[in-house]
Amino acid sequence: MENFHDKRLPGESDEYRTERNKLIVAEIELRKHIEDVAAQRRRLPMGGRLKEDYVFEEGPADLSDRQAVTRTPLSGLFADGKDSLVVYSFMYGPQAKTPCPMCTSLLDSLDGAAPHIGQRVNLAVVAKAPVQKIRDWAIERNWKNLRLLSSGGATYNADYFGETPDGDQIGVVNVFHRIGDAIHHTYNSELIFMPSEEGQNPRHVDPIWPLWNVFDLTPEGRGEGWFPAISYR
Predict the structure, then answer these.
(1) Strand partners, 173
(2) What is the pLDDT of residues 31-50, one digit of tens each?
(3) What is the pLDDT of residues 167-213, one digit of tens each?
(4) Which CATH superfamily is domain 55-190 in?
(5) Considering only CA atoms, which of 202, 128, 134, 135 is closest in space to residue 160?
(6) Would you say 161 and 191 are in contact if contact means Cβ atoms under 8 Å apart?
(7) Is this model's pTM higher than 0.70 or not?
(8) Which of 45, 157, 158, 166 has the greatest count of CB atoms below 10 A from its CB?
(9) Is the separation of the CB atoms in 176 and 184 below 8 Å?
(10) Cα gap 28→92, rounded to integer Å
């Protein structure tokens, strides 16, 4: 590629510009590849029809309301005019004292994005913990925009790979699509079940997690052995 832009940063060396231009070529190729993979994902045929219309427990939008718990079927998570549903399986089991720090970090970010996401698709977060336990954690994290549900009385987690046979929770993304009265599964972040390349984690939910993408811009990168914590105090 020869037609690079004419922008130059203060104090940059010729060596820096030469290597930066090589990186631009790589970034353009990455941009194309990301779109190619997204297009391939969109071309997937419809997956299996929803195994059952799972019923979750859900509280009202006001997290301080501890009384009005309702039972919401998965089909009830689809708003009019929005036929895709993205569900994140939150690793927070019934016996856990605190939820997964990694999931918490991801959901801290997703809470801010949720109003924007909701303009086009439906978004929900499902955990196996009792609904009030989930809501108490949301209050502690100051989440205001996530639709939080408990799957404690359903087999959703096990059926859609959000749980091991031993009951351990797994953080995965599942996508469902509604066609008329039928709901089909279309996507699961299955990369988590594949071996990782040396020095990498599964990165199966990186597309919805800004944290690691910010680190990737820096000379330090993601580092080795650092992971999000519940608190840094």
Answers:
(1) 88
(2) 999 999 999 999 999 999 99
(3) 999 999 999 999 999 999 999 999 999 999 988 899 999 999 999 99
(4) Glutaredoxin (3.40.30.10)
(5) 128
(6) no
(7) yes
(8) 157
(9) yes
(10) 39
